[in-house]
Amino acid sequence: MARIVHYINQFFAGVGGEDSAGAGPTLVMGPVGPGRRLAELVAPEHEIVATVWCGDDVAAGLVGEIIALASSVQPDLVAAGPAFTSGRYGLACARVVAAAQAAGLGALASMHEDNPGLDEAGAAPVVASGEVARRMAVSLDRLAAGIRRLLAGEALTAEDGRIGKLARLTVMADASAAQRAVDLALVRLGGDREATEIPLPRFDRVTPAPPVEDVSSALVALVTEGGLVPDDNPGALESARATKWLRYSVEGLDGLAAGEWRSVHGGFSTVWANEDPNRILPLDVARLLEAEGAFAGLFGEYFVTTGNGTSVANARRFGIEWAADLRHSGARAAILTST
Amino acid sequence: MTLTRLVHHVRQVALGEQTTFAQGVLTVSVDEARGILADPALAETRLAWVSPGESARIVKVLDAVEPRTKGPGGGGIFPGFVGPATPQGSGETHVLRGAAVVNAGYLPRAQEALVDLSGPAAALSPLGSSHNLVIEFTPAPDAGWDRVDAALRNGALRLAARLAEAALDAEPDEVEVLPSPSATRTDRPRIGAITNLQTQGSFKDVFLYGRSFGPCFPTLLDPGELDDGAVVSGQFGHPALKNPTYMHQNHPVVNELRRRHGLDLDFAGLVICPEPVDQAGKELISAFAAKLCAAAGFDAAVVTKEGGGNADADMALKMDALADLGIESVALYGEMAGIDGTGPSIVVAPERATAMVSTGNYDHRLQLPRVERVLGGAQLALLGVPAGDAYQIPTAVVYCALSPLGWGRVTARAS
Questions:
Q1: For residues A260 and A275, what is the distance between their CA atoms, to the nearest angstrom?
Q2: pLDDT at B415
Q3: Which residues in chain B are closer than 8 Å to A177, comparing Cβ atoms?
Q4: pLDDT, mean of residues A201-230
Q5: pLDDT in tens, B298-332
């Protein structure tokens, strides 16, 4: 009998909704919430020995603790979800299975193909769930079937509902790219409409959020991808291919003084940015608007990364983390300056 | 118009009293070379050869130039820099194949670029298998960086022409008669090339006949003009995705189209385009490039770029503009698929066209060994570590490793 730990969020654990979204990870013995049905589906061969749940706002940053709790009961496999299209929950599930796999455990997550957290699973397998929790029953059927297959030592394929990109690995081709390009042009002219080496990526279409109804009562945050950091770049933000974002306090500042801040962005000439850092992060005018009462207050920190050759997966993760962090901190609007 | 390349293979290199080329041995007079490089913007230049197989690394690599000349004093080579800005691309051009003149050192906006002469990264760069005459430099105390940049560019081009001049009287190892694109339609498909060049101002610029290409419209170029150095790079961003002068001189897509001209295709022509920094400019340039291709009778175009995500937009717009005129296109993309290869490969995708060739994943990590000898600088700027140490870097840092012009064999495939 294989031992399974099931990861879910605070909502499906029955703890609460947004009011409990900041709760840290907790280990509970046996199945909880949707885990009860999942346990029936994988029995009698396998057993859900424990459940780890965590609040949506903090889970993605506490994956190490989640895996440590799961590992304390010696599981063979960590299952996560179904997360449907919930972004924070999906991100957490994806990271949990990625970390579980990296720790040498079996791992399988369940979420909808459109879940923005999907790419974070990396090479760990994910199977498709329905779009919303009403599809719980069929989603659990597929998750259970996937668990059985993995524990039988088999790999999951699209037929099992596996989703997410397969890793594109670097290899040496037989011919130069120039020769292959000319070959491909001839193949296309010969009538093959499909031939390509790179399948077109599926891009998100972002629907703008509705306007904030009453800005004058909102806490507003400034965020930027312009690489603006304190002059000595204490967090070592990258000039390109950013793998992280940073936060710096603007408490007590009426603007950003030249010489004390600089942009490390490698994708444009930073001369004018450094001459007046407010051009990247408009703290000076934000303070004026704050004094005029245009909004209730300015959030005490700004968030920053570098948008230059940054992978879409990382950029998506930064966005989810920023939104969760700001939401948790009470900010209701953010001004994102881009370069 | 026909160009003939008289190719001399450089098999061995040395520094010596006089600049000579004989029996495959290229000897360079340091005194003469430093005289050629002398400029008020440079306090000092230092020269050293580094050769394939050595435990050696060049960091902060700027431009690379293949030594070429068309006669004494250059005979018109590198028009607009060494020779006058008059059209070139015909007659005879002497080529010192297997050697390169390479500038290396700090310039603003230049991204850290690395060449290894042995180990796993050597095969990924065209400079990994060539004898490289590396020019290191100290700027004059009061010189502006733009002056330093110009001095390095002019110096490397003059020196490259001078080195090739040493072979003017030598018997070439190979004679390559290069066809020009044909205007006559046959029953073979007509395929041409569109080459986008990154033009984003100082230190990220490309020159055509000595002039900044940024404000220009797309133009048809005779491929022989590339051979004679009409296109010179001053673009120091995106090391793996850059097109140094050396690669323009040896444009892989153009060479492939020439090789197959009259066999399974007819070479329809070469269109070069700037990569504007604004969307409206990108759309306008893409529409004009497509118009030129239609006028030149392209059935298909191989589209290439220079740079990262910004340049993906130029590619996508061009592919769609070509599709709108009924011209097939294939684009060469360096993928940006994340360290584990699971991220989306390209930043901006075309809406109608779909044929792409992969030149590898920019984010793929390489483990480099410690090396005995380092040129170009003491530190690797990217990591802030001694440049000769063992470390892991993204493929993006290796010079021309994902060559948008299609030089390499690196690719990425779904596992």
A1: 10
A2: 67
A3: 252, 332, 357-359, 403, 406-411
A4: 89
A5: 999 999 999 988 999 999 999 999 999 999 999 99
pLDDT over 90 at B283, yes or no: yes
Instruction: Assess A189–B contact: CB distance below 8 Å, yes or no.
Output: yes
Q: Tell if the CB–CB gap between B361 and A171 is shorter than 8 Å.
A: no
Q: Are strands B91-97 and B68-69 parallel, antiparallel or unpaired?
A: antiparallel
Which residues on A lie below 8 Å from B394 (Cβ)? 241
Q: Quick one: three-class SS letters along chain B?
A: CCEEEEEEECCEEEEECCCEEECCEEEEEHHHHHHHHCCCCEEEEEEEEECCCCCEEEECEEEEECCEECCHHHCCCCECCCECCCCCCCEEEEEEECEEEEEECCCCCCCCCEEECCCCCHHHCHHHHCEEEEEEEEECCCCCHHHHHHHHHHHHHHHHHHHHHCCCCCCCCEEEEECCCCCCCCCCCEEEEEEEEECCCCCEEEEECCEECCCCCCEEECHHHHHCCCEEEEECCCHHHCCCHHHHHCCHHHHHHHHHECCCEEEEEEEEEEECCCHHHHHHHHHHHHHHHHHCCCCEEEEECCCCHHHHHHHHHHHHHHHHCCCEEEEEEEECCCCCCCCCCCCCCCCCCCCEEEEEECCCEEEECCCCEEECCCEECCCCEECCCCEEEEHHHECCCCCCCCCCCEEEEEC
What's the complex ipTM?
0.97
Question: A215 CA to chain B: closest CA distance, Å?
Answer: 31
Instruction: Give SS3 for A51.
Output: strand
Residues 229 to 288 of A: which have CB under 8 A from any B CB? 239-241, 266-269
Q: Which domains does chain A have, with CATH numbers?
A: 2-163 (3.40.50), 215-337 (no CATH)
Domain boundaries defined on chain B: 2-397
Q: What's the confidence (pLDDT) of residue A214?
A: 92
pLDDT in tens, B192-222: 999 999 999 999 999 999 999 999 999 999 9
Closest residue to B409, CB basis, from A166, A172, A186: A172
C-alpha distance from B51 to closest chain A C-alpha (Å): 23
Interface with B, mutate which of A197, A204, A244, A269 (most B CBs under 10 A): A197
A158 touches chain B (CB under 8 A): no
Contact A201 B349 (CB under 8 A): yes
Is A313 in CB contact (< 8 Å) with chain B?
Answer: yes
Answer whether B361 sits within 8 Å of A196, measured CB to CB.
no
Task: Calculate the alpha carbon distances from A247 to A121, A221, A225, A318, B306 in Å.
Answer: 25, 11, 12, 12, 33
Task: Give the torsion through C-alpha atoms of A35, A41, A45, A47, to 10 deg.
Answer: 10
Name chain A contacts of B412, Cβ cutoff 8 Å: 168-171
Nearest to A180 among B260, B357, B413 (CB): B357
Which residue does chain A place closest to B355, by CA atoms?
A: A196
